Give the backbone structure.
Amino acid sequence: MTSYCGAPPHPYDWLERWNLDPVLLVALAIAAAMALRSPHPRLALASVGVLAVVFVSPLCALSVALFSARAVHHVLLVAVAAPFAALALPARGYRYLGIAFAISTATLWAWHLPALYDRALGNTATYWLMQLSLLGTAIWFWRELFAAPPVTASMVSILAMAQMGMLGALLTFARAPLYASHAASTLPWGLEQVADQQLAGLVMWVPGVIPYALVTALIARRIWTRAAGTA
């Protein structure tokens, strides 16, 4: 299967598979220019840098071959690039935090349904619909979260961490291959499809929850500091 990022690479050539799509490079350059004009340019540029890793580096091609690399791709998108962007463009309120959490979670889970996932890997328009919807809803969620009071933010952050862990657990314990897109692409890497799928689940279950855990810890520290200051 040929995806937006090309055909599945082999272990001997994947490091050479940079994605130099001119439209993508122009879009990233525009995003970087806009980042320099944002209220917090370093955070905004960090977000753009993560997007470059996701879409330009050989990770783009590797994620066509390995579902575990796709899991890294998605974690970087929704749990690293998105919060950096949210911090760079802070929201003024958190009125829609619950809705943002529900929609971002539903979006993440929906794109891991086999039919939608396989369609995205085989169709460029659907691929970009996947990427933009994941990134957009995640930025919305993180902006609302960072604007919320500490107690509310910590509770919702824990829920977000839990849903990422649950999705990872479901993939880890699935006993049958779920995605036709990776039916043969994992074999050159010495991995059965189910093993690659389980590795993807572990990526989401363990390192995938670290950004949420860090945010929760920082919020808890803020609560503790305020409590200590009023004691």
